[in-house]
Structure formats: C-alpha cells, structure tokens
Specification:
Blueprint: E1 3-9, H1 16-21, E2 36-37, E3 88-94, H2 134-179, H3 181-184, H4 188-201, H5 215-226, H6 231-261, H7 263-274, H8 277-282, H9 289-304, H10 312-326, H11 331-349, H12 354-369, H13 373-383, H14 394-402, H15 422-437, H16 443-460, H17 462-477, H18 488-491, H19 506-522, H20 524-543, H21 554-572, H22 575-578, H23 584-593, H24 595-614, H25 623-635, H26 639-647, H27 654-667, H28 670-683, H29 688-700, H30 704-717, H31 721-731
Antiparallel strand pairs: 1-3, 2-3
Length: 732
C-alpha cells in the first residue's frame, strides 16, 4: 500500500533536510527524479494501485491523497490555500516500511508544515480516520450557511449604499436642472420631442412617419395627458422616470458584474455607473439617453443569461426588450438581428436539441418584432411600403456624418438644413431629396436616397472615411465630451454635483480594453457581453459619433472593467507578496514564476498609461453651448446674461450676432445694436428680424431714411403687423 503525503518547505531554506526525508526514486509513484507539484483540485479522484477504483472523497486526511500539515482538508479549498503562507507544497509517496518522516501532522503538534527535530510520526498516524459524525457534518454545514448569509448581507448593504449615493447625486442634479435655463426653456431634441408629443395628443393632427426613435415622444405625451394643464409637472415626471431608470441601470450593472466576476466585480461595476458624470448629467433630462442606457443594459443582461439552448420564455423576453429598446435607440435593432442570426446558427448546429433551439429562435423573432408591429403597420398605411425599421433618419444621419465635404468626425448639417434640430432636418432633407429626385419622395425613400448619396461619397474618398472611423474610435474611448445643444462643461457652474471629482470615460475605456480579451477567453456569458459591447461600439463608429451616443455602452464597459480589476486584485493579493510588501526582489521573482500575475500587472500598467492618455482634455469649442444658453436666457428675458454668454463665443455666427444685437437694443445701446445687426446681416442677408431690428436702432439714432430702407427690406422677406406700423411711422 502506498500512502500519499505532502511536504511543505519554506522557500529559501536549506534543501538538504528535504532531500534526506524524501524516499528513494523507486518508492515514488511519479517518474524517477521528478516531484509533482500539487495543483489539481482537491475533488479530483486519484487512482491507487491497491485500493481499487478511484475515490470520490476530497483529498485530505481520510482520502488517498491528503495534506499532512493542517489536519483534515476543507472541502472545496485549493491545495495552495491549505499550505502555510510562503511555503511550497510537493507531493511524494510513502511506501510501507520506510522511515517515518520527522514533521508535525496535526495543527496542535508544533508549527504547521515544519520539521520537528528529534520527533517522528509513524505510519499509524497516516491511517485515514473514521467518517465524521452527522452532528459534525451539521455543524460544518451550518457554519457554511452562516458564512454565506453573512457575505450576502454584506454585499446587499454595500450595494444599497452605492444605490443611495447614486440616487442622491441624481436627485440633486434634477433640482439643479429644473432651475437652469435649459431646464426651463427646451432646445434641440428636447423641444422637438415635446412638440411631437403635442401633435400626438392632438386628434386633428395627421400621423407622421417617425423621423427618430418614437418611444420617448410617446412617453412625454403620456405624462402630458396626465397633467394637461401643467406642462412643467409633466416635464418633472419625465425627469424623475429618467432618474429611476438610472437607478435601475446601477442595479443591472451590479447584477451583470456579479454574474461574470463575483460580488466584488458587481460592486465595482455598480460604483462606476453610479458615479459616472455624463450619466448623472443626462438622466434627469428629456433626452432619450437615460432610457436607452437602461434598455441596452437590460438587453445585454438578458443576453448574458440566455445560454446556448434557452427556454422559449427567456428568448421571448430578450426579444421584447430588444424590440422596445429599438424604439429608443435604433442600433439595438441591429443587435437584435445579430442575436437572431447567432441563435439560428446555434440551432442548426445543435442536432440533438435542434427542435427546442428552433422554438427559442422563433420566440426571439416574435418578441423582437412585436413592439415594432404597430409602427410597421401605420407606416405601411402612410407610405404604401413595408419597412422593418420604423424610423427614417438613418440615411440622413449617415449622410450628415460621412459626406465628402464634412472633414470632421462629428455631425455637420448640410447648408440646405440651416440650424440643426430634428424638425428643420426632417423638412429640409425630405424637400431636398424630392428636388434632386425630380418627384415627391416618401420619408423612407428619402432616407434611402441619402444613404446612397453617402455611400457614393465614401466610394469616391475611401481614405477619408477610414480616417474618420479611426478618429471616432479614439473619440469613443477618450474622456472629452462633445459640446452640442447641451454643454456639460458650461452647466457645471449651475450646481455643485457636476463639480465633484466624479468618474469619467478615459480610465473606464482603458480598463474595459484590458478586460475584453479576458471576457472573450472565458466564453459563455462573458463572451456574449464582450461581443455585444464590440458590436454596439462598431455601429456607432461606422455611422457617426456624438459622445452622448456612447452612454449606453458605459454599463457594458463597467462590466468588462470589473473583470479586469478582479484579475488585477487577485494577482496583487497573492500571499507571498503581501507578507513583505517592501521586498521588491521577492515581487520580481514571484512575477517571473507566475505568468498570469505578470500578464495582469503588465496589462494594468498599460491600462493606466492608456487611461491617463485618454483622460487628457482636447480642445473643444463651446460656442454652440454658449449660443444655446443665450437663447434660453433671451426667452427668459435675462438680457444681461445673454450678453455675458455671447461675449464668450469665439467664432460667432449670424444667430449669435442677432441675439447680442437684441440684448443691446433692450438695454438702449442703439449704436452698438446697429453694428451687431450689420455683422449678422453680413453673414446672412435673409434674416428678416435683423432688418427690422436694424430699422428700430437706426430710427432711435435719428437716421430715418436708412431705417425706412431696412424695414422695407424686412417686409419683403416676411410681412409682420408691427413692421408695417413702423414703416408707416417712418414714411410720414
């Protein structure tokens, strides 16, 4: 009979005693001259040549292979965790009749795993003891349950604290948003959504094919129906729903990280989403970015849990979530089609369970197109065609980002559009496409027209498109936020939440890149998370990038980053390094032996360097933000603030000069107002309000003839009763 034992020796100590205690090579169960390092799982059965079939009992005292030091092994723990700190454990064989080894075999017989000089333990000490009593088993199981419940309670309390912190920041930001100029005067997409909601509630208004994702407009319309006499209350309700969806995103990020990397990874992902500054800024608004982030995170979480052959109800739920998400953010429909194609491929390859997999794919298809069916039917009645995509802004957006005369990576509207907002773009793109085609086009036909025009421009200048895609990839990872209708950098002055040292995008994207190969290598749900993040990021950089478009990717990046931080933490938590943190030589030697630690720490250093590089701010023009804030202050009749905003504009356009001239006119600075009006007309002579304002300023300065010419020019462009009265007064 051969009995296995483990000898633990301290690294750096003399190996002579260990060699003296070792049996001759012919007594070992391994090949002569080799000592097998114990690294297998304690539950792996080992074959004994004299004891018959392999034992299913865990290695330890009472099993064919056991650790001599430390007493009975604990089920489920690794052999390296049962050795003393800083010792290497090797497995040898003890043949009957050999000399007894001089070491302590119990926890109470001296120092664990060390040689006791002059003492010996015979082979009778190595005989497996009898099975533990039921009472002892109940005690062990009870302690395990207590430990599990304690860890679950600790995780729940930590997650609750993170959720409360995120809720506090978002609630304070909501109150700041309500008091700010852009919260009182809606501009851009927010104003377009609110006017769209009013048309939805108007029974006399005809149905219009959605230009962009319609679910947010219907959401606003629902709250306007609840508060018909108080539009401000309806706006506040929409903002509070955005905050609640943001808290749901935090919980989903925690669930995603915990499923892939354990409780600590879940807490890290939740903390990152809770303290992410752009999410705190955009969720309490009427924009669709907060609901889109929640829908994307929920869809990917369901996809991670989907599995190779999921039940039909899970596939149906995933399809419904992707379909509803496509009504908030259009690229989720592309993700749904990709998941559908992958599910069909898996169903074809699974021969034993092909029928069940086919039922799951059918349920996914049903759930995907069920939310889209009402818009598909109504668009068919309005246009006469069958279009799977309910919106028609895809071609126009692709053209605005990728046409040949746009040399930036961002969106620049064509000259025939004018000021960029959804309503101007909708009318201008449709009219221009119909003019170029020579006939009246339907909205989806206009979208196809602009898509073909953009592809023709890309084919004419492919290198420009490649450069744009590379710049968008860098912009997708960098920390800098674009300044559009809303400028987060300018709005920081309105409250203290955005001024806090919150988390930004640079380090998050660097850690996500570090966790991406780890997730792909692990397979299963982690691989589906990584592929979903890469696919959605690809849809953004291939079409066009605005930094708020990447907000739905933040929880996915947080999940990948939590996997990277988990690997780095495990590498740093190795006991041999934590005993003496100042022993740099020991660190280096240990890293040279542990390839996994070396890879993780080198990757962490690279991620830190890349994160610092991505966090460097790049110059961004805030002119559009200043102009939009000036428009809001002008609507609120705060003309002093209008002047202060416009004085910060570096390259003012015609609208900026017009707003400044009106503010100066209200203040009584007639000469300065006249000069500002002339600067605006030098950039755009077709602005009727500028001609009328110039006439008013010149009339106050006593230059009546010039004022009469100006007001007649204004009436030639646009007739207005007040301008007619001014002309009659000047003609006397």
């Amino acid at each position: 009979m051969v009995v296995r034992a483990s000898i633990s020796s301290k690294p750096g100590a003399s190996r002579t005693a260990a060699r003296a205690m070792a049996p001759p090579p012919e007594a070992c169960s391994e090949r002569p001259g080799r000592v097998r390092r114990q690294g297998a799982s304690p539950l792996v059965p080992r074959q004994d040549p004299e004891s018959g079939p392999p034992s299913r009992r865990p290695s330890g005292i009472g099993a064919p292979a056991f650790g001599v030091k430390g007493g009975p092994a604990v089920r489920g723990r690794r052999p390296s965790e049962r050795t003393a700190r800083g010792r290497s454990c090797r497995s040898v064989s003890i043949a009957p009749g050999s000399a007894a080894f001089g070491y302590s075999a119990s926890r109470g017989g001296g120092q664990r795993g060390t040689r006791t000089p002059g003492s010996s333990v015979g082979l009778e000490a190595l005989v497996p003891p009898s099975a533990p009593s039921p009472r002892a088993l109940r005690s062990v199981n009870g302690s395990r349950e207590n430990e599990r419940s304690r860890r679950t309670r600790s995780y729940g309390l930590a997650l609750l604290a993170i959720l409360a912190l995120g809720a506090c920041f978002r609630a304070v930001r909501l109150t700041e948003e309500r008091r700010g100029p852009l919260g009182q005067v809606l501009l851009g997409d927010e104003a377009s959504y609110e006017r769209w909601a009013e048309r939805i509630l108007d029974p006399a208004a005809p149905y219009e094919v959605p230009f962009q994702a319609p679910l947010q407009a219907y959401h606003i319309a629902a709250w306007r129906a609840v508060f018909p006499a108080d539009p401000a209350a309806a706006r506040d309700a929409v903002r509070w729903v955005g905050v609640l969806l943001g808290l749901g995103t935090i919980l989903l990020a925690a669930a995603l990280g915990r499923r892939l990397g354990g409780p600590m990874a879940g807490l890290l992902a939740a903390l990152w989403v809770a303290l992410y500054r752009p999410l705190i800024y955009h969720e309490p608004t009427l924009l669709r970015d907060g609901p889109a982030t929640f829908a994307t995170t929920l869809s990917v979480w369901l996809l991670v849990r989907w599995g190779a052959c999921p039940p039909p109800r899970r596939s149906l739920l995933l399809g419904l979530c992707l379909g509803l998400g496509a009504l908030v953010r259009e690229n989720l429909l592309l993700l749904g089609l990709g998941v559908l194609a992958g599910g069909a491929w898996i169903a074809v390859r699974q021969r034993p369970r092909r029928g069940r997999a086919a039922v799951g794919v059918a349920a996914l298809l049903l759930g995907l197109f069920l939310p889209l069916a009402p818009w598909i039917v109504r668009n068919h009645r309005a246009e006469g065609g069958l279009f799977l995509i309910p919106t028609w802004n895809g071609g126009t957006v692709f053209y605005g980002f990728n046409r040949r005369d746009n040399l930036t990576r961002g969106y620049v509207p064509p000259t025939f559009v004018g000021r960029a907002n959804a309503e101007n773009e909708r009318a201008a793109y449709l009219a221009e496409a119909s003019r170029r085609a020579g006939r009246r086009l339907t909205p989806h036909e206009a979208s196809s027209f602009w898509l073909r025009a953009a592809l023709a421009d890309i084919a004419a200048a492919p290198r420009l498109y490649v450069v744009k895609v590379l710049c968008r990839c860098w912009g997708l990872l960098a920390s800098t936020e674009d300044a559009q209708a809303r400028d987060m950098e300018l709005d920081r002055a309105e409250g203290w939440v955005l001024g806090l040292p919150l988390l930004d995008h640079g380090l998050l994207s660097a850690l996500a890149l570090l966790g991406l190969p780890c997730a792909l290598r692990r397979g299963g749900g982690a691989r589906r998370l990584a592929l979903s993040a890469v696919f959605l990021a690809g849809t953004i950089v291939s079409v066009g990038l605005v930094t708020r478009y990447r907000l739905p990717l933040v929880p996915l990046f947080a999940g990948l980053a939590s996997l990277a931080l988990r690997g780095i933490g495990r590498s740093l938590a190795h006991r041999a390094r934590l005993r003496r943190p100042t022993d740099l030589r020991g660190w280096a030697m240990d890293l040279s032996r542990r390839r996994e630690s070396t890879a993780w720490l080198l990757g962490a250093a690279g991620a830190l360097a890349l994160g610092l590089l991505l966090a460097q701010p790049r110059p961004v023009s805030h002119d559009a933000g200043h102009v939009n804030r000036a428009i809001a202050w002008h609507a609120l009749r705060r003309f002093r603030l209008v002047e202060s905003e416009l004085q910060a504009v570096q390259e003012p356009d015609a609208l900026a000069h017009e707003l400044l001239a009106e503010a100066l006119l209200r203040r009584g600075a007639w000469a300065e107002a006249a000069r500002a009006y002339r600067r605006a007309l030098a950039r755009d002579e077709e602005r009727a309000r500028c001609w009328a304002g110039l006439a008013t300023a010149l009339e106050r300065l006593g230059r009546r003839e010039e004022a009469l010419k100006a007001v007649r020019r204004a009436r030639a462009l646009e007739d207005h009763p007040e301008w007619a009265a001014l002309e009659r007064a000047l003609a006397r």
